[in-house]
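User: Predict the complex with fe (ii) ion.
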Amino acid sequence: MNISILFVDDDNDVIDGYKRMLFSMKKEWSMHFALSGEEALRIMSTAKIDVIISDMKMPVMDGTELLRQVKDLYPHILRIILSGHQDQVKIVRSTILAHQFLLKPCNANQIKNVIKNAYSLRDNLENQKLLSIINGIGQLPSLPELYVEIEELMDTPDYSLERMMQIISKDPAITAKILQTVNSAFFGLPRRITDLLEALSFLGANTIKSIILYLHSFSMKNVPSIARDYCSEIAKKSLLTAQIAREIGNIETSDKQILDDIYVSGILHDIGKLILLQIPEYFDKMNYMINIKKMKDIDTEMQILDISHEWAGAYLMGIWALPKTVVEAIAFHHNPSKINHTDFSILTALHIANGFAEYQAEPFDRKKIDIDLNYLANFKLKGNFEKWENIAHKYNLIKNEQENPSY
Ligand SMILES: [Fe+2]
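Assistant: Here is the predicted structure with fe (ii) ion placed in the model:
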């Protein structure tokens, strides 16, 4: 697929640097270059642009003003800020003007990675219906500032849990919510944790990072009030799915990165529903089809919108630059057969955990769980299903408790 990228910088040498550095991408990308915000807007009015990468400090129209106009005029364009100063990045981040940030100096690989991650699975996501719906919504949630700050800290040599605690503690509201969440029955902790540092050492920095994403995603700022309960249910099910998925992962792998990615996939797998909730008729129709007609959510979405929450969520995760395997797992969590593989993956854990977490009927009946049997039939690990099922039994007991962490 050809991605069209517009680079904006008032320094001619920087623009020449882009041209040299990214010459090898000529076949995959069509690249446009502008020396000012005004020129960039002119180009966008005539050419189809998918991504804009802009400098911050420019005379007359600076990067902030340019991106503000791009956000209003062309909300579907992926906005990336390239800045020489960390402080400038912080200011823009707080205004949600950019989807991604790059610090100067950056090399060709960093630029390629940011764009490739944002556009991973774009071939599949290049569904005109999905794009027109997302363009219609106009405003996609951005990554929380605290999350990005923690990621940056974890990349530095002086990273420690104490430093992480100091950063999170600056926000007492989120600290309280983190503690409330980790003390919910989902985590099954042996005793109550009252201290953030203890939570960090007990659950690990990556789990806490995922919980921050969870609390941000389900803060329900853009959710219509009529859909709040529905949204709470999604939040609760997401946490349950993440826990079950990670336990399934624990059986199959000891790779820490994969286990962390499984967890974050579980936390965010249904986030596409929150995006679709911004479509006015979505909630009413879903409510009717699921509760009255007893249809599955994914089938209902295909019937009423011709796109699913899997793809809406995967699209957002691509923009948030989550790992490709996480984006892929979210994109296929109801239909894993669409991907060709027979080994355990993040998608396997997520698909199975999602089936278990959604399972409502009593008594437990394996045949009624919403799991893709074609997918498992070719699977090297299908003998492990019983072990996975034992995890579901454990968590189904938790699900039936009146436990509901607040978001
Ligand atoms: Fe789902």
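Residues 269-270, 309, 333-334 surround fe (ii) ion (CB under 6 Å).
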